[in-house]
Specification:
The protein contains 4 helices and 2 strands; from the N terminus they run αααββα. By secondary structure, it is mostly helical. The longest helix has 11 residues.
C-alpha cells in the first residue's frame, strides 16, 4: 500500500464519499521522514499511482482517463510527472467525476 493508507481495514468501499474520505485521511498520515514535520497548511501532492489507488483501478487506466480529459488537469508537473493538490481531486469527486 502507498504511504497514505495504513492498512487494508482502513480502505473504504468504492464510492464518491469513500474516495473523498480516503483523500482526507492523507493529511492525518505521518510525514514522509521520521523527525521531520510539515507546516499544517501543506498537504502532500498526489501523483498517478495515488489516484489509481484512490479510484481502485490501474495506473494505466488513470493515464488513459487523463489522456481523454476525464481527470482534472494537474496543478503542476515535477519534470514530466503530473501532481495534483488533494483539494483538486476532492472537488472533482464532489462534482461526480466530471471535469
Amino acid at each position: 500500500m502507498r504511504r497514505f493508507l495504513s492498512t487494508e481495514a482502513d480502505t473504504p468501499q468504492l464510492g464518491p464519499l469513500a474516495l473523498a474520505d480516503s483523500i482526507n485521511r492523507q493529511s492525518e498520515a505521518p510525514a514522509a521522514k521520521p523527525g521531520r514535520t510539515l507546516p499544517a497548511s501543506i498537504e502532500p501532492m498526489l501523483h498517478i499511482d495515488d489516484l489509481a489507488e484512490l479510484l481502485s483501478c490501474s495506473r494505466r487506466l488513470v493515464e488513459r482517463m487523463r489522456s481523454a480529459g476525464k481527470v482534472p488537469k494537474p496543478d503542476f508537473h515535477v519534470g514530466r510527472c503530473p501532481r495534483w493538490k488533494p483539494a483538486t481531486i476532492r472537488a472533482w469527486i464532489d462534482r461526480g467525476g466530471k471535469t
